[in-house]
């Protein structure tokens, strides 16, 4: 399995007490599977992505990425696994303002040590895949919100990750643009055999995903809860 969380507990200090953000969570996502997590604000969705991204270490339980247990691994190992196996797309596209679209992608390849030539070819291929083939020389301020989010997605795929983690990718977009982003993610998930986990509040896009999970008070359960309030 590309991503496997088993019995994960995550707590945050909260004054004298501790807050349980992830309460014995199990999650398994295989190659080419598009999973979605819905649930109220504050229920633990972003925390789940942070643990899966190896950005936060859980209090207990195991996190396996591309077959390697990272829950007890040191900082250097976690950084390497994140760079080589995980693509991350956060809610706000955090692009570097001074770089062109193409360079946003090349920076990632440079950090991973790939050859500049192979990197340029891959970057151009990914920009075509996200329908930005004609925007490679633009800078972020010259792009629309939807275009910036697509750059963000292409950048996350630069180092050919096994796992793609996305936190509310459509929250800054109108419904139609949001739905196009989710359809693009579904397509990329299949073509690149990604294990994709998308947190969303946009219940209308759930028809495009394979698996729907609901987070409630740190507990992850199968299926969409129809009455789940929208999360923002
Ligand atoms: P969601 O993404 O579903 O809105 P989060 O994972 O951001 O939920 O938060 C889950 C719970 O953990 C919330 O009660 C939130 O206030 C708390 N929390 C999130 N991040 C931190 C942090 N860095 N330190 C302390 N508490 C946090
Ligand atoms: Mg969140």
Describe it for me?
The protein has 232 residues and is of the alpha/beta class. It has a domain at 3-94 and 161-222: Rossmann fold (3-Layer(aba) Sandwich), CATH 3.40.50.300. The protein is 32% helix and 27% strand. The chain has six helices and ten strands; from the N terminus they run E-E-E-H-E-E-H-E-H-H-H-E-H-E-E-E. A six-stranded mixed beta sheet has the order 6-7-8-3-9-10, sandwiched between helices. It has a four-stranded antiparallel beta sheet with strand order 2-1-4-5. Helix 3 (101-112) packs across helix 4. The chain is globular. The two termini are 30 Å apart. The mean pLDDT is 92. It binds adenosine-5'-diphosphate (ADP) and magnesium ion. Residues 45-46, 167 line the site of magnesium ion.
> How helix-rich are the residues, as a percent range?
25-40%
The assigned structural class equals: alpha/beta
Number of distinct helices: 6
Bound molecules: adenosine-5'-diphosphate, magnesium ion
- Main sheet: which strands, in order across? 6-7-8-3-9-10
Radius of gyration: 17 Å
Largest sheet: 6 strands, mixed
CATH class annotation of the domain at 3-94 and 161-222? Alpha Beta
How many E-type strands? 10
């Amino acid at each position: 399995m590309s991503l496997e969380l088993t019995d994960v507990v995550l707590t945050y200090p909260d004054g004298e007490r501790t807050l349980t953000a992830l309460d014995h969570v199990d999650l398994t996502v295989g190659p080419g599977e598009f999973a979605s997590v819905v649930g109220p604000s504050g229920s633990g969705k972003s925390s789940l992505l942070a643990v899966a991204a190896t950005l936060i270490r859980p209090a207990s339980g195991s996190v396996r990425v591309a077959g390697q247990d990272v829950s007890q691994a040191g900082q250097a190992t976690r950084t390497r696994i994140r760079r080589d196996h995980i693509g991350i797309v956060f809610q706000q596209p955090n692009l570097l303002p001074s770089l062109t679209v193409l360079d946003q992608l090349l920076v990632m390849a440079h950090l991973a040590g790939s050859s500049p030539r192979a990197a340029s070819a891959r970057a151009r291929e990914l920009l075509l895949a996200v329908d930005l083939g004609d925007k490679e020389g633009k800078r972020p301020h010259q792009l629309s919100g939807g275009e910036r989010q697509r750059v963000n997605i292409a950048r996350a795929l630069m180092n050919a990750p096994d796992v793609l983690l996305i936190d509310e990718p459509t929250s800054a977009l109108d419904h139609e643009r949001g739905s196009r982003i989710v359809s693009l993610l579904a397509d990329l998930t299949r073509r690149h055999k990604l294990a994709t986990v998308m947190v969303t509040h946009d219940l209308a896009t759930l028809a495009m995903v394979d698996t729907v999970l609901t987070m409630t008070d740190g507990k992850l359960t199968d299926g969409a809860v129809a009455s789940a309030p929208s999360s923002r």
